[in-house]
Amino acid sequence: MDKFLIKRPRFPSSTNTHVLNLNSAADSNAFIPDTNTPTQKRANIEFNPDSIISDPGARIPIDEYDVNIRDQVRRAYIAKGPFRPVDYTFPKNGDSRTFQANWFGEFDWLEYSIHKDAAFFGSSHNEATRRYQAFKNQKQSISHVFFAQGHEIEVDYRRRLTAVLTVIRLLLRQGFGFRGHDESSDSLNKGNFLEILEWHCENNVGVGKASRSNAPGNCQLTSPKVQKELVRACASETRSLIFADIGNSFFTLMVDESRDIYLKEQMAFVLRYVNKHGEVIERHYQSEAAQGVRDRLLPTFIYTVLKFFVG
Description:
The protein is of the alpha+beta class. Helix content is 38%, strand content 12%. The protein has ten helices and five strands.
């Protein structure tokens, strides 16, 4: 195999020249490196923003700049703004008509080239400026692009949330339970909350289009966690209304121990006061688990419950 091949010498990377013996058959076919070939690493190209030409008729196209500095060139053009020579004496055409400088104030997309004595409108420079402004104001730009779709999603969400809140308020007012033993899709009785919500969707076309299978899977607003959060929100609003009704008047706090169906000890808090119409009102304020609370700890326990709602 060796008689069909000519071994070429290896050139050390540390040397720039190599002495060849041209009388040798091997060296006569050897590869001679080109010392004028540029290195693999590209030199850094420096850009001077003052070197760009603002005149749209004489400026260098972006594509003619090195790819590594094109973003810098774009920013420099944007910083300079459109080319509008206000103090320039514009030449007249054959009909004795001339360009008017006040047009710059009326049309923000207008430029003028002294180099070509011509007006430029809708140029790529102004298009780049508009895109740059949209990029800086991303929130406004995105909200404008997705306005129609976002508005529809918001309307459906409000309908879905209002329907869920309506069912929750009904159950709270009547003192009914929420959950069912079997809340699967093929269950015959999913519990009060889901059953009443489905009935509400069937009898309200707008709610039906925004709920159940028509709603996103991660925004059904029917999970137990969401139900509890909405119940807590309703309780907070109810407390605010109670204290607004009391105002600066005196009230009595009645505390008594009670037990739920699971025989867990609870403390029931009831507010008794006289409203603005002279009527005696009693409002159930809150029930808290009170396992192991004794008489000497009761004042501290009451303060802990009320400190978040009484200033």
